[in-house]
Amino acid sequence: MLDRYVVTSFTALSAAGASCAPQAPSASSVQILHDLPCYTLSQGSQDKVTNLVNNTTDYSRLDPASLYAVAAATQLQSLQNDQLNRTTLVSVGSSRGATHTFENALGAFAQQKRLLPTTSPTTTLGNLSSSILRHLQLQGTALSCSMTCSTSLLSVGNALAWLRSNMVEQALVGGTEAPLTDFTLEMMRSLGIYSGDTSSPFPCRPLAIEERNTFTLGEGAALMLIEKESQALSPPLATISGCGFATVNSSGKSSVRLTSEGVIQAMQAALQDSDLTPTDIGAIMMHAPGTKQGDDAEIRAIYDLFGEDSAPFLFSNKWLVGHTLGASGALSIGTALEMFSDNIPQFPYPTRIKEQKLTAPPSHILINSAGFGGITCSVVLSHPAIAN
């Protein structure tokens, strides 16, 4: 019997806190920076970062993207000793990386100030994963992935490849993002898709009935431990049944082709890898960034593959946590895990998708991510009670 690969632990820092549960963000989690609404860490998530810095020597030198990842990993220290001693792949990615440190260092350089000796090592992309490996004192290796908003789902796919080839015994994977900096916000403003809603508790409104751009940046991190089911020391939260990828030659401001071709190809590949059919999928966690063209392209892809009248339950959590770029796919997995626990989400506003109801946890959930460059990734999660 082939082994299955299961998620046995999950943790997150976000505007919604640790659980990614579909509840409204607190008023303090949506802040206005440079006249733009942004989803910032919840107070509980921020406290975890503050405690890490206060209790660990030299961690104040780390960029927030690294701090968020390490603080999230610290919540996984309930791992049993046998798990900590296993050969582990740590693969945590980011779209923007050490943005805060880069911008501060560049500002100092422009003023002809001497740079700190920690500038170079703390701005490497690999520091995201290696910091976790060192902090948890894990045995194994670390690597970091960066492929825009598909980053964390690609990290999951990479972890499956390492596990299936028996190169490691377990994988700690996910994404982290701290993009709320002056330069990043101005870059996003220049795309012409950023939300202008500075008064709503959820300025990002993916799939809303009023078809307009509501893209809103958020910060956060999400990590999960993936193990072989036969070796798992904790009850599984979900099975990772399959993963699929697609690349579409693209053009335009964001280098994302405004057709559904890539999304369809990635979903089909994930279903094939899972040995499932469209009728097996009970819910889809959409990428749905809150842009009119992006949301519509994904809706068309889903309706083309699944049928408009037979499409699964559709949801996006970006109204809850904002668009966290490289961490967004991992945070979507967190919301999917909540759905397996019978925490069925609903949008807090009218949407333009067909009326839908989900009265019980689905057996299988498809998660989509897409990003600049036309890279799309889909992952299928299965309820832990579902047998092969």
Task: Give an account of the 3D structure.
Helix content is 32%, strand content 20%. It folds into two domains: 5-231, 3-Layer(aba) Sandwich (Peroxisomal Thiolase, Chain A, domain 1); 238-382, 3-Layer(aba) Sandwich (Peroxisomal Thiolase, Chain A, domain 1), CATH 3.40.47.10. It is globular and about 60 Å long. The strands form two sheets. The chain has a ten-stranded mixed β-sheet with strand order 5-4-6-7-1-8-12-11-9-10, with helices on both faces. It is α/β, with parallel strands linked by helices.
Topology:
Layout (H helix, E strand, L loop, with lengths): L4 E9 L16 E4 L2 E4 L3 H13 L8 H11 L6 H4 L2 E7 L5 H12 L8 H4 L4 H10 L2 E5 L7 H14 L5 E8 L4 H9 L29 E9 L9 E10 L13 H14 L8 E3 L6 H15 L6 E3 L2 H4 L6 H13 L23 E8 L3 E8 L6
Parallel strand pairs: 4-5, 4-6, 9-10, 9-11
Antiparallel strand pairs: 1-7, 1-8, 2-3, 6-7, 8-12, 11-12
Helix pairs in contact: 1-2, 2-6, 9-10
